[in-house]
Design brief:
7 strands, EC 2.7.13.3, two-stranded antiparallel ribbon, Heat Shock Protein 90, Sensor-like histidine kinase SenX3, five-stranded mixed sheet, 359 residues, alpha+beta, phosphoprotein, 3 domains, Helix Hairpins, 8 helices
Length: 359
């Protein structure tokens, strides 16, 4: 009789469980409270049915049988009441979170259950990032509007003067060509930055040596440094640093952007030093200049798009588009690396850190 009771209890439990699963799937779009109620009711129903089946098979007569069933029924009622209270609190906290999300600006409510608190804190961080990006986009639009309008107005005036025969100086033609090249470089930088922000930057990775990258970058920057009267120096750690797995063209552009910015902000007779090595298990590329340093309040913002601090890397008369640091940061982060800047010596030191190549 006992075996039959166990089989009956197991069978009833399975049926109740299947029914509970079906109801929860059918009503999965309902509130958390409703789903919790289904779970509790299913658990209590399975317990009550199992106990009832065993009790009916046991040698219990009269009041003893009713006492057992009554105890189980009371337990089921108590469990249902507790579940109702808990589910009501969960629903209330969920609604509090929803109301906070709908408010502007969003501030994560405190005192939520741990899982909801994690969601709220994550949402607050995401909203903060979105606000920062939106602010950067607005600044970029204003910046582009200003820095495109100025050269275009000058080119229009020079073109009209040439067209009307007011002037015949070929220097106007040379100036127009110079401005066209500057605008073309600016558009190229904007396009590259948009690809980085859209996650559309495609990297062709291979094992490359950082010493070779430093040599190539110095060769490409020699003309600009000579025109500015700035010396270029290299310091390669011995033995030659371990290779990294990177896109040589993209990483070379990031390093070149740092070097060009360093040259532009280093006074004549100053020195820009490129160095590479391994530190803390990470390969690094560093560019040290003699710009006089960056105000501490600006150090964390120099990589922001369109940031213009007291000594920020901004568009200059020699054609800089002012987006070099933002592009460099995007390229480095696409390589799973880090980029930062600190004041050091007579200027500042920009450093790119990359994980060494595996294998």
């Amino acid at each position: 009789m006992t075996a039959m009771g166990l089989m009956a209890a197991a069978g009833l439990g399975v049926l109740v469980a299947l029914a509970g699963i079906w109801v929860s799937r059918w009503r999965r779009a309902q509130s958390i409270g409703a789903l919790m109620a289904v779970v509790v009711v299913a658990a209590m129903a399975a317990t009550f049915a199992g106990v009832a089946a065993i009790t009916l098979q046991m040698v219990l007569e009269g009041s003893a049988r009713f006492v057992v069933l009554g105890v189980v029924a009371v337990g089921a009622l108590v469990g249902t009441c507790v579940a109702a209270v808990v589910s009501r609190r969960v629903v209330g906290e969920s609604r509090r979170l929803v109301e906070a999300v709908r408010s502007v600006p969003f501030v994560a409510p405190q005192g939520l259950p741990s899982e909801l608190q994690i969601i709220a804190n994550t949402l607050e961080e995401a909203y903060a990032r979105e606000r920062a990006l939106e602010g950067a986009r607005r600044e970029l639009v204003a910046w582009v509007s200003h820095d495109l309008r100025t050269p275009l107005a000058g080119m229009r005036a020079m073109a009209e003067a040439l067209e009307d025969g007011v002037v015949t100086d070929l220097r106007y033609v040379s100036r127009i060509r110079h401005e066209v090249e500057r605008l073309s470089a600016m558009v190229d930088d904007l396009f590259e930055l948009s690809r980085i922000h859209a996650g559309a930057l495609r990297l062709s990775r291979s094992h490359i040596g950082l010493a070779d990258l430093v040599a190539d970058t110095m060769a490409g920057a020699e003309a600009l440094a000579a025109a500015k009267g700035v010396r270029l120096a290299a310091a390669v750690e011995a033995p030659v640093p371990v290779p990294v797995e990177a896109d040589a063209g993209a990483l070379g552009r990031a390093l070149a952007n740092l070097v060009v910015n360093a040259i532009r902000h280093t006074p004549s007779d100053g020195t820009v030093t490129l160095s590479t090595g391994v530190s803390g298990g990470m390969a690094y590329l560093a560019v040290a200049d003699a710009c006089g340093g960056i105000p501490p309040a600006d150090l964390e913002r120099v990589f922001d798009v369109a940031f213009r601090g007291e000594t920020a890397r901004t568009p200059t008369a020699d054609g800089g588009a002012g987006l070099g640091l933002a592009i460099a940061q995007g390229i480095v982060e696409a390589h799973d690396g880090e980029i930062g800047v600190v004041n050091a010596g007579a200027g500042c030191r920009f450093e790119i850190r990359l994980p060494p190549a595996s294998g």
